[in-house]
Design brief:
about 425 residues; mainly alpha; two-stranded antiparallel ribbon; disordered C terminus
Length: about 425
């Protein structure tokens, strides 16, 4: 299977997500700068930042349930078209010089809601497009992750800052164009078979079924715990990283940008070698190794005597994160029944998003109570402890059992599974597929 080519439709999905990621990178840099032209109140700026993540906290699991009910390709197309139209509103108000912080916060919230639906639908659509083949999923996710990092992490932010110099409306319009182009590409994607939803069941009940599927399956729970605990650790580091770089390492503002670039470069490398690591070590062992590498790299960052060692440590950490973000989702997409994919993916993402604020608070509190290196040491300890706890939950044996169980069920069925099978494998079901209209 390793030599099998990715289907033509994947190229269009890849292009759509690359264009959209570039627009996201533009807006990621431009939005806080636009807000800064309207107010200097830190709380008002925080509201705009928080508004974008709030939909995941409020509607994460419900959004996954909706995606499992809806046509996934059409959902992606409609959401991107809606986001393009939405951005025209702040662009027009910025051009007319009547833009306000309140409007920016509302737009950030609605864009976050659209991101929730689009990302969940794309995650659920990909395994159907690639036939749920584990090798193809790793290759596909590696390419998606790599270009997303390059577009949103390298190209997008500098472009956003440059476009802002032309006027506050310009980066908003650029992101709108990226969403419109993405919608057109998504509209051309091939139809894929999809599961028949269970009739007569409430949305809340379906959302609970998806969440319980994650918590009752040790493999899926282990896959969900890694990014959740990881976000606590990484946000604790991110909260104090600029201060650590300035006070302990003597890094200038420009040097801090290079430090972050080193981490992103490592992320590209990790995404590129993820499939190799999965084949060489087995997916379960590879996930354990990348998690351990992240923890050791953060420990190295805490002990870094100069900026060069710090940059190398962040690059190594980024490589571990990049590989994890390919291997984990690929495995989840290969073993979760199609009719539950949206809810399982959104539940895992919601856990990670909810964990992030705790990490930020933890980092600030530890730095205030002790010293600037303490949050980094605590984050490293947290990552290594998580690695030890989840190692047996995502072992090669458990992964292979889940993949064999998934292979025995060739397609999605119409009913919700009451219990996940042991070691992550879904319950046998009668495959019932209907073509998309």
């Amino acid at each position: 299977m390793n030599g099998q080519k990715l289907p033509t439709g994947f190229g269009r999905l890849w292009s759509a997500q690359t264009i959209s990621s570039l627009g996201d990178g533009v807006l990621h840099a431009a939005l806080p700068l636009i807000a800064l032209t309207l107010t200097r109140d830190p709380m008002a700026l925080a509201v705009v930042t928080a508004a974008g993540t709030l939909p995941w906290l409020l509607f994460g699991v419900l959004g996954g349930a909706l995606v499992d009910r809806w046509d996934r390709r059409r959902t992606m197309c409609v959401v991107d078209a809606a986001r393009a139209l939405l951005l025209a509103i702040p662009a027009a108000t910025a051009a007319l010089d009547v833009l306000s912080i309140g409007l920016l916060a509302v737009v950030a919230f609605l864009l976050g809601l659209g991101g929730l639906l689009f990302d969940t639908a794309a995650t659920a659509y990909l395994p159907d497009l690639l036939g749920r083949d584990p090798a193809l999923l790793e290759r596909g996710n590696s390419r998606l992750r790599g270009t997303q990092t390059a577009a949103s992490g390298f190209a997008g932010p500098p472009a956003g800052s440059a476009l802002l110099a032309l006027g506050r409306a310009v980066p908003l319009l650029a992101d709108a164009v990226s969403f419109a182009l993405s919608a057109l590409l998504v509209r051309s994607l091939p139809a894929v078979p999809r599961a028949v939803p269970k009739a007569g069941e409430s949305l809340l009940r379906q959302a609970r079924a998806g969440a319980s599927y994650v918590f009752r399956d040790r493999l899926l729970l282990g896959l969900a715990l890694r990014p959740a605990v990881g976000n606590v650790a990484f946000l604790a580091v991110e909260t104090v990283l600029a201060l650590f770089a300035h006070d302990r390492l003597g890094i200038s503002t420009f040097g801090f940008g290079l430090l972050l670039t080193a981490e992103a470069t490592g992320g590209l490398l990790g995404a590129g070698i993820a499939s190799f690591l999965g084949r060489r070590l087995g997916t379960g062992r590879a996930l354990t190794c990348t998690a351990a590498v992240e923890g050791l790299a953060i420990l190295g960052l805490a002990a870094a005597p100069n900026p060069y060692v710090a940059g190398f440590a962040l690059a190594v950490c980024g490589a571990g994160m990049g590989a994890t973000m390919v291997l984990g989702p690929s495995l989840r997409q290969a073993i979760v029944p199609a009719q539950l994919m949206g809810r399982v993916a959104s539940t895992s993402r919601m856990l990670a998003m909810c964990a992030a604020p705790f990490g930020a608070f933890l980092g600030g509190w530890l730095a205030t109570t002790y010293d600037i290196r303490t949050p980094l040491c605590a984050a490293a300890g947290l990552l290594l402890t998580m690695t030890a706890i989840t190692a047996t939950m995502t072992s090669n044996r458990r992964v292979e059992a889940a993949l064999q169980g998934a292979a025995s069920t060739s397609g999605p069925g119409p009913l919700e599974p009451e219990e996940p099978a042991r070691q992550g494998a879904p319950e046998p079901q009668q495959p019932t597929k209907i073509p998309e209209r």
